[in-house]
Amino acid sequence: MRWMLVFLIALLIFNRAGEWLQKIGLGRLPGDIRLRLFGRELFLPLASSVVLGLIASVIGLLI
Question: In a 10 Å sphere around its CB, with 0-12 CB exposed, 13-18 middle and 19+ buried, how is residue 26 labelled?
Answer without folding.
Answer: buried
